[in-house]
Amino acid sequence: MHPLQTELADMAALSLKIEGAVAHLVLNRPEALNTLNTAFWQELPKALRAIGATADIRALIISSTGKHFTAGMDLNVFAGLNGPEFQLEASRRAEMIRRWVLELQACFNLLEEIRIPVLMAVQGGCIGGGIDMIAAADCRYATEDAFFTIKEIDLAMTADLGTLQRLPTLMPQGVVRELAYTGRKFNAQEAMRHGLINEVYSDHDTMIESVMAIAQTIAGHSPMAIHGTKEMLNYARDNTVAEGLRYAATWQSGMFHAHEVLEAMSASFEKRAPVFENLQPNIAKITR
């Protein structure tokens, strides 16, 4: 068993599998429709930091169990907002809620910040906070029965964990606005047509098998090159072309080394799989 599985064995909302250089994180509360409960918000960042700090993990899949990927935020997470600790002077209550939302946002931000690609595999409903989560991933896949809803509008809320910021970079503005204003369901085929979903599969098992094959292909490439590619794509999304090009030049000046290029070329010539060194583990993990 991989040491990471032992380290994260006590999770209640999630479970972890390791296949070669691919980590597979699974939402594991099907009886509760995998709602995003307090345990989830505590365990997801812990798991992502541990996976991202581990040298021999090169890709991450996040999938789910049961009928639905997730029914969204567990309403018990909101229960405390009316508790005595929130009965404060108005400005202090506002500051406390703002800080609370930022902490929740930070959990999904880690999906972008982690140095390996994150692939989401969605079945059934992906509702509310589920869209916030998958929008922060690198790639998204779905079963034919999958559907999506920006549910917050039906709860008299403005979505605040990333959907409204990330979805317009993945789908047309007009489509995102319609979906956010109406809260209507849209299915996997529509999601793929508009660019949210990479591919649609007939069933859950076929999807997981196919996504695992994609992840294993990613894991076979230079982890430094993959890390750099993710870094450049995220930076390019949020900056101008000129700024992105300058950052790419700076990155290459520090990160490019010919020995991995030569290994890739030699492996191609010799018709074998290339062998690349792992990235270094996170220093914080070494010293802890």
Automatic annotation (TrEMBL):
<dbReference type="InterPro" id="IPR014748">
    <property type="entry name" value="Enoyl-CoA_hydra_C"/>
</dbReference>
<dbReference type="InterPro" id="IPR045002">
    <property type="entry name" value="Ech1-like"/>
</dbReference>
<comment type="similarity">
    <text>Belongs to the enoyl-CoA hydratase/isomerase family.</text>
</comment>
<dbReference type="InterPro" id="IPR001753">
    <property type="entry name" value="Enoyl-CoA_hydra/iso"/>
</dbReference>
<protein>
    <submittedName>
        <fullName>Crotonase/enoyl-CoA hydratase family protein</fullName>
    </submittedName>
</protein>
<dbReference type="InterPro" id="IPR029045">
    <property type="entry name" value="ClpP/crotonase-like_dom_sf"/>
</dbReference>
<dbReference type="Pfam" id="PF00378">
    <property type="entry name" value="ECH_1"/>
</dbReference>
